[in-house]
């Protein structure tokens, strides 16, 4: 039998729980004809707050939460299909934060202050198809963030200040088809970064600081169709970055706005079905560009160019953008491609673009 003190304590607990429930209800509104929920300015999201009362919620949008998400915070939302988190500060996304949510299909995290995503954050999510995490500050992507996600086909980590991606970070995402890593601070593509991504179709690495692509980097992406390397710091590309068996499905390569002066004569050998390439805004050495364009012509590869009226500001807003590739020679008599990089010529090229911007 409970004594009077116990009864008083139970009443206090129930009252406290009631206050929490009233608090969250005051900050949340129903949406999409009752199947959605939008919560704003809730300090802490946890399983205790998101109790069984929200079991039938299908769409959930959290705005401006200010503390790390509780472990398995969404476990009671068994029917949740779409989860969006925007604004605020989470700091760390802990392991198992998104776990055992059988119907979850999409997670969208945008403009949240996040500094670390731990291993097994996305774990045991059989229906998850798309993860978008943008405008955050994590710098380092560790191996094993995605585990037992058999249907995940799209990952976007654009504009996240990523500097380094651990080898085999995506190896447990067997059906991944598109990977967006643009607008980060990556400097290197390591040979095992794309390990076991045999279904990858689209890889966007634009707007980074990539200067090195290691040999065999694309050995595990035989179905790659689009490779976007726009706006990086590449001075050379080695054909050995592609597998010896070739990349028979690769249709397009975008090399706009790098520091390339040449491509090795065998570069296209392992790309039998390449259909288009973007060469603009590189300081091509004239004999090398001539050789490249001959190869493109002989293999029916389309060389993309800019519309006459466009400087394509979204590609390189701070620089003039010629419609077609422009080359430079050290001497008028130069007619042999030497496959070497010249810092001097590269600087002359940049000055030339600025001096003659009005002609582009």
List its salient traits.
14-stranded mixed sheet, 360 residues, 3 helices, 23 strands, three-stranded parallel sheet, alpha/beta, single chain
User: What's the helix-strand series?
Assistant: HEEEEEEEEEEEEEEEEEEEEEHEEH
On the 0 to 100 scale, the average pLDDT is 87
Q: Sketch the major β-sheet.
A: 14 strands, mixed
Strand percentage:
15-25%
Based on CA atoms alone, the radius of gyration comes out at 26 Å
Shape: elongated
Q: Helix coverage percent of residues?
A: 10-25%
Low-confidence stretches: 1-23, 309-318
Q: How many β-strand stretches?
A: 23
CATH architecture, by name, is Alpha-Beta Horseshoe
> Into how many domains do the coordinates divide?
1
**Global structural class:** alpha/beta
- Top-tier CATH class: Alpha Beta
CATH topology: Leucine-rich repeat, LRR (right-handed beta-alpha superhelix)
Number of helices: 3
What do these coordinates show?
This protein has 360 residues and is an alpha/beta fold. It has one domain: Alpha-Beta Horseshoe (Leucine-rich repeat, LRR (right-handed beta-alpha superhelix)). The chain has helices at 4-27, 286-298, 343-355, and strands at residues 28-31, 36-40, 59-65, 82-93, 98-99, 106-110, 113-117, 122-123, 130-134, 140-141, 146-147, 154-156, 164-165, 178-180, 188-189, 202-204, 212-213, 226-228, 252-254, 276-278, 284-285, 302-304, 327-328.
């Amino acid at each position: 039998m409970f004594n009077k003190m116990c009864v008083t304590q139970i009443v206090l607990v129930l009252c406290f729980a009631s206050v929490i429930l009233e608090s969250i209800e005051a900050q949340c509104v129903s949406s999409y004809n009752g199947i959605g929920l939008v919560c704003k300015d809730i300090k802490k999201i946890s399983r205790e707050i998101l109790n069984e009362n929200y079991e039938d919620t299908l769409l959930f949008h959290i705005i401006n939460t200010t503390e790390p998400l509780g472990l398995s915070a969404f476990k009671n939302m068994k029917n949740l299909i779409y989860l969006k988190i925007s604004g605020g500060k989470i700091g760390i996304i802990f392991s198992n934060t998104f776990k055992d949510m059988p119907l979850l299909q999409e997670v969208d995290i945008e403009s949240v202050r996040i500094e670390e995503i731990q291993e097994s954050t996305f774990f045991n999510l059989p229906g998850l198809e798309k993860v978008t995490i943008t405008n955050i500050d994590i710098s380092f992507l560790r191996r094993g963030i995605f585990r037992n996600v058999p249907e995940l086909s799209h990952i976007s980590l654009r504009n996240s200040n990523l500097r380094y991606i651990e080898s085999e970070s995506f190896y447990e995402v067997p059906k991944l088809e598109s990977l967006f890593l643009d607008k980060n601070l990556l400097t290197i593509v390591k040979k095992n970064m794309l390990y076991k991504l045999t279904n990858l179709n689209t890889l966007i690495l634009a707007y980074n600081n990539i200067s090195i692509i290691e040999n065999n980097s694309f050995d595990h992406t035989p179905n790659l169709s689009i490779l976007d390397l726009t706006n990086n710091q590449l001075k050379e590309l080695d054909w050995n970055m592609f597998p010896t068996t070739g990349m028979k499905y690769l249709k397009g390569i975008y090399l706009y706005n790098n520091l390339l002066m040449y491509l090795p004569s065998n570069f296209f050998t392992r790309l039998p079905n390449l259909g288009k390439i973007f060469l603009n805004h590189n300081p091509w050495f004239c004999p090398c560009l001539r050789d490249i364009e001959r190869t493109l012509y002989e293999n029916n590869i389309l060389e993309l160019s800019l519309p006459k009226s466009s400087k394509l500001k979204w590609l390189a807003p701070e620089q003039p953008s010629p419609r077609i590739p422009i080359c430079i020679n050290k001497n008028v008599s130069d007619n042999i491609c030497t496959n070497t990089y010249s810092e001097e010529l590269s600087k002359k090229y940049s000055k030339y673009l600025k001096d003659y911007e009005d002609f582009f």
